[in-house]
Amino acid sequence: MREEPAAPTPIILGIDDLRPLPRATRIARTSHEGIQLLQEHRDSFIDELWLDHDLGGDDSIMPVVTLLEEAAFNRRPFHIGTVFVHSANPIGAETVVRSLTRWNYQVRRATA
């Protein structure tokens, strides 16, 4: 009897300063850490990317959004199944959704 190969573990990344995000396989707590995390997975398929707009103090998700936008502009978008925006900041969340949707990322507003 042959064993079926195990399905690959999904890559679920989260960028949020406070929430535990139990589904995430890796979590970044700042925009700087988020950029590093995405760069580590640059050539991988990311099943889910969870984004919070406000990351504490003056930090926000916008540097990460800029990275994703620039990659798409340069015709090398990140390979992401779905981006979930789960911010308590409705204006910031809508900005993220609008920005990434414009570049053909699949984006959904969600609660974490």
From TrEMBL:
InterPro entries: cREC_REC. Pfam families: cREC_REC. Residues 12-101 form the Cyclic-phosphate processing Receiver domain. Keywords: Plasmid. This is Cyclic-phosphate processing Receiver domain-containing protein.
